[in-house]
């Protein structure tokens, strides 16, 4: 069977990474969570005071991009890769609501996108990859053999994200999680550079009422038909 590229795009908290991890495991492919890369760059901007509640020093931050080193390291016991920022594991820090509330602003900057897209394309050179994000089927791998576009209602998505955060021990209110999900969707789909939209040849999956198992089965059928 030939190795293919699987591009998964869609709105926030539609279960893209859960699906991508399942597919990568089943197929023995590499999984790349591009959201984690944008989140790590945002964490760097926050840690170094380039962005805050009422300011964003965009020009200074752009000059700093060469000092940001991102890498993934596979964690055997977890069964997936974790995000490292300048050699430090930041997997937990990048998932906070604080990072979520700034990430769409940071990822709207063309220079940030240019650098990360270049790295992502390099990772996918050998195919056998599942990558999820917002512009994978449209910009990063427009030639991907299989493109999926995930959707679900905002309330269902916010509920999923809220449960994740509560499980991790974060103190958040449902309303603020819902607001964040809606704001990110708006900024992500209205930005000038690489806005989120469904590629013409992507298959749309609305998983509002699908179990994980049913979703995985139907997508594995698509994968088999594509290979
Ligand atoms: O996938 P996740 O929700 O973790 O992504 C966080 C944010 O990173 C998104 O809301 C979006 O602003 C940005 N992102 C992006 N392009 C990608 C992946 C993520 O702009 N390919």
Automatic annotation (TrEMBL):
* Annotated GO MF terms: ATP binding; CMP kinase activity; dCMP kinase activity
What Pfam families does the record tag this protein with?
Cytidylate_kin
Biological process according to GO: nucleobase-containing small molecule interconversion; pyrimidine nucleotide metabolic process
Enzyme class at the top of the EC tree? transferase
Q: Which InterPro entries would you find in this protein's record?
A: Cytidylate_kin, Cytidylate_kinase_dom, P-loop_NTPase
Q: Where does ATP bind?
A: 10-18
Domain Cytidylate kinase: residue ranges:
6-224
Q: Give UniProt keywords alphabetically.
A: ATP-binding, Cytoplasm, Kinase, Nucleotide-binding, Transferase
State its Enzyme Commission number(s).
2.7.4.25
Name the domain of life this protein comes from.
Answer: Bacteria
The cellular location(s) given in this protein's UniProt record come to:
Cytoplasm
Q: Which reaction does it catalyse?
A: CMP + ATP = CDP + ADP; dCMP + ATP = dCDP + ADP
Q: Kinase: is it a keyword of this entry?
A: yes
**A GO cellular-component term linked to this record:** cytosol
Q: Which HAMAP family match?
A: Cytidyl_kinase_type1
Please report which protein family the annotation says this sequence is part of: Belongs to the cytidylate kinase family. Type 1 subfamily.
Q: Would you tell me the protein name for this molecule?
A: Cytidylate kinase
């Amino acid at each position: 069977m030939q190795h293919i590229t699987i591009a998964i795009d869609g709105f926030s908290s539609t279960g893209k990474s859960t699906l991508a991890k399942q597919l990568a495991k089943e197929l023995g492919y590499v999984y790349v969570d591009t959201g984690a890369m944008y989140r790590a760059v945002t964490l760097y901007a926050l840690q170094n005071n380039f962005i805050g509640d009422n300011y964003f020093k965009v020009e200074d931050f752009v000059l700093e991009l060469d000092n940001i080193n991102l890498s993934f390291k596979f964690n055997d016991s977890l069964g997936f890769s974790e995000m490292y920022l300048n050699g430090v594991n930041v997997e937990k820090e990048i998932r906070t609501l604080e990072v979520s509330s700034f990430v769409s602003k940071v990822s709207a900057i063309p220079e940030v996108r240019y650098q990360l897209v270049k790295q992502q394309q390099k990772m996918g050179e050998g195919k056998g990859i599942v990558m999820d994000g917002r512009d994978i089927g449209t910009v990063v791998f427009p030639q991907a053999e299989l493109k999926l576009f995930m959707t679900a209602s905002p309330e269902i998505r916010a509920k999923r994200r809220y449960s994740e955060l509560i499980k991790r021990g974060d103190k958040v209110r449902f309303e603020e999680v819902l607001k964040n999900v809606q704001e990110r969707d708006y900024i992500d789909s209205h930005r000038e550079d690489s806005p989120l939209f469904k590629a013409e040849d992507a298959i749309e999956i609305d998983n509002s009422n699908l179990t994980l198992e049913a979703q995985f089965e139907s997508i594995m059928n698509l994968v088999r038909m594509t290979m």
